[in-house]
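Predicting holo structure, guanosine-5'-diphosphate bound.
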Amino acid sequence: GIEGIEDTPENLVARPPVVTVMGHVDHGKTSLLDALRTTDMAGGEAGGITQHIGAYQVTLASGAKITFLDTPGHEAFTAMRARGASITDVVVLVVAADDGVMPQTIEAIKHAKAADAPIIVAINKIDKPGANPERVRQELLSHEIVVESLGGDVQDVEVSAKKREGLDKLEEAILLQAEILDLKANPNRSAEGAVIESRLDKGRGSVASVLVQKGVLNKGDIVVAGAEWGRVRALVNDRGRQVSEAGPSTPVEVLGLTGVPAAGAPFVVVENEMRAREICEFRQRKLKEHHVAGQVAARGTLDQMLARIQAGEQKEVAVLIKADVRGSAEALQATVLKLAHEEVGVRVVNATVGQITESDVQLAKASDSVIIAFNVRATSQARLLAQREDVDIRYYSIIYQVADDVEQLVRGKIAPKHREVFLGYAEIRKVFDITRVGKVAGCYVTEGVVKRGCGVRLLRDGVVIHEGDLSQLKRFKDDVKEAAKGYECGLSFAGYNDLREGDVVECFESELVPA
Ligand code: GDP
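Done. Tokens:
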């Protein structure tokens, strides 16, 4: 394949819709996906859809095809969107007819709206005695989902995943929506798409499930996926069969990549190995550069929790703890649990060790909790996701400050006594040992500014290994007041000498905030 072929209207052809199923836990997402899987008519002697490769494609009796992403839940969807992958054309919102609209139903609606994906409501469990589909339609009204029977334009279908009823109607609704969306792709060009999931397989090496969005992916193509590349050694479809090509809206497993790309990473076919290497080297360098810790705290989960506690709607403070070492994680957990009182409890969703990753942020989002980061920082991807999802990350290095803040929350107040102002990041490029001065770090300021006399934290692989004061800030031979992004500078730390190339210096100032 060759890059850069224009997608003009005349070389576009219709492609199958790609569908994500979302909804509240236990409302039947998995059951519905399993039921829809069996509606495939193309199976015949070749055997039906047997493999879980992250997505599958059904062929209906009419010959029309629909692709379903079979990793239900919001996490996968959110993770993909966080990386900019927009792969869902239609969201099927599953609502159990006996249970109605629940918190994750509302969350799913928000996700779908944020992604600009039209929703089709599948009112499930219609076989149950307590089923009340009319109530579901009414409840959806207050979340701006107006179904057709109530004068809106959202299609709704009553189904029973268990009894396999209404599945054909649901598929018809999806196809109708696809027609309205006028989904098209150019099959006569090199392939582009997104990684749905990936893993390292003992026997087969890197296995990446991808969804082809444009063009046709061929065996032998050279592919770049995220910061990984490789020549496609084999393509395996959702029936576990090797195929030589995969066209638009087709999910397929790709073997032959040199590494494991992240879910949601875009993939593209390039003209040769050299180009692939170039792109990947650049991307890996970028990843490293951005691998500095996160400081920006969004105002989301914390404010929301506080508002609910103040309104008496919430009876517990939920926190997710990430710490530098096991001892701190355990101590923090014990400390915050003790702060519960009669009216408001404390729930520790998770208490683990290490950098804050995207899955921590997703868990915090799903559980409406605040992340307490103790001497650790977030990966740049996690930081971006937290910003996008308004998940609060609070950074601490002193246990009693955590205790103070959680106690305030439990009391329905939030009054941090001091607020830290983030100044900037500098990366240590070289360490000099100077007589009578000690170690001096030759740094490059990658973000913000470094100021004379500011507080500093030394981060090694996202974990804080030292916190203290800056004793010297120099540009060449001169003492200076500050050094801004893009400049080099020499730093030394008061009473601290264990500096290494690649360490990141986080600079901050403290500011008093009235209670
Ligand atoms: P998920 O958490 O949304 O993936 O929900 P599951 O698919 O795991 O279903 C949760 C429970 O509901 C399981 O016990 C299913 O057997 C049951 N269930 C799912 N669909 C139906 C249905 O249409 N009718 C009835 N009666 N039960 C269903």
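The longest strand covers residues 418-434.
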